[in-house]
């Protein structure tokens, strides 16, 4: 059962986003990027109150993903990325992105906070940041 509604086009968009943002981080890195995307759709809080679909999340502007804003979102989704996208749409979560709404790739160490959000951990090059539960309870809810 899906934790967010998704058409086949949505699955393809999420898979393309995961590839564009984290292909160099391997499968687990792409899954974590997918977690952040699904959390933004589920969140209805903070920077994402009007984001209700995968398409809206992928193309959010301002505040969206670098891949769609800087032009490296052009590659098609391959079968492996499509499989990974389906995993996160089904609700599979991967630490440190479990409840995260943001990630970025700093030049050095992960700051403890980023735009007042707490660091939940690092995976390879990406630092992940989650809101407090009181600010965004929906990303902490179970399915």
Tell me about this structure:
- This protein has 143 residues and is of the alpha+beta class.
- The chain has 5 helices and 4 strands, in the order αααααββββ.
- A 4-stranded antiparallel beta sheet has the order 1-4-3-2, with helices on one face.
- Helix 1 (8-22) packs across helix 2, helix 1 (8-22) packs across helix 5 (79-89) and helix 2 (26-43) packs across helix 5.
- It is globular and about 35 Å long.
- The N and C termini lie close together (9 Å).
- The model has no long low-confidence stretch (mean pLDDT 93).
List descriptors.
four-stranded antiparallel beta sheet, 5 helices, globular, alpha+beta
Summarize this entry quickly.
The chain has five helices and four strands; from the N terminus they run H-H-H-H-H-E-E-E-E. It has helices at 8-22, 26-43, 54-58, 66-69, 79-89, and strands at 102-104, 113-114, 117-123, 126-130.
User: SSE string, helix = H, strand = E?
Assistant: HHHHHEEEE
Q: Biggest sheet, strands in spatial order? A: 1-4-3-2
Most strands sheet = 4 strands, antiparallel
Q: Give the averaged pLDDT, no decimals.
A: 93
> How many separate helices?
5
Rg, please? 14 Å
Number of DSSP strand runs: 4
Quote the beta fraction: 5-15%
**Structural class estimated from helices and strands:** alpha+beta
Query: Helical proportion?
Result: 25-40%
Termini separation: 9 Å
């Amino acid at each position: 059962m899906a934790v967010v509604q998704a058409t086949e086009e949505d699955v393809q968009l999420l898979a393309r986003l995961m590839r564009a943002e984290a292909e160099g981080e391997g499968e687990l890195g792409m899954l974590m990027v997918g977690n952040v995307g699904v959390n933004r759709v589920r969140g209805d809080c903070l920077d994402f109150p009007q984001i209700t679909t995968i398409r809206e999340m992928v193309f959010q502007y301002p505040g969206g993903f670098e891949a769609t804003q800087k032009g490296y979102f052009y590659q098609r989704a391959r079968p492996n990325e499509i499989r990974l996208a389906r995993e996160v749409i089904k609700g599979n979560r991967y630490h440190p992105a479990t409840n995260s709404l943001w990630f970025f790739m700093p030049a050095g160490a992960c700051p403890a906070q980023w735009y007042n959000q707490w660091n939940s951990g690092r995976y390879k090059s990406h630092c992940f940041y989650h809101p407090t539960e009181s600010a965004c309870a929906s990303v902490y809810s179970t399915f």
